Amino acid sequence: MCAAILTLEAIAFGLVTPVLLTLTSISTGLALLIGLGFVVACIVLAGMLKRPWGYGAGHLVQALAVGLGPVVGMMYVVGGLFALLWFTAYWLGGKIEREKAEAWAAWDAQQAESAPQ
To answer: What stretches pass through the bilayer (predicted)?
Structure first.
């Protein structure tokens, strides 16, 4: 679920790039670096969530997305919504993993009890 959120966030950052170019006073190079840098970071991180540090980096991207608010005011809202989606997916994913581990443990215990001796 978190990979899907990061992928959608990459699209949103792709759409923020023209806004950075036209509606802000920052240089073209910096606007492209910020906008397209976030796009690349989100796509790469979506594939890196299998690594232990991937989720920490995803948390950082969410903070930076909201932190872009002073440059583009709407990013307070858009970044906040993506952060909410991210943390919900993170929490639900953890809950699903715990429940799956409990179900497998119960299945293993049941198989051990019913195995012929």
So the answer is: 6-23, 30-49, 69-92
pLDDT digits (tens, 9 = 90+) for 33-59: 999 999 999 999 999 999 989 999 999
Which residue has 């997916």 as its token pair?
Answer: 89
Cβ of 99: how many Cβ atoms within 10 Å? 10
In contact, 10 and 65? CB cutoff 8 Å: no
Asked whether the beta carbons of 20 and 31 are under 8 A apart, the reply is yes
- For residue 116, the model assigns a pLDDT of 77
pTM for the whole structure: 0.84
The H-assigned helical ranges of 24-74 are: 28-47, 54-67
Reading the block at residue 90, the tokens are 């993170």
The residue with tokens 């930076």 is 64
Task: Give the pLDDT score at 52.
Answer: 84
Please say whether the beta carbons of 89 and 4 come within 8 A. Answer: yes
Residue spans of the domains in the chain: they are 2-114
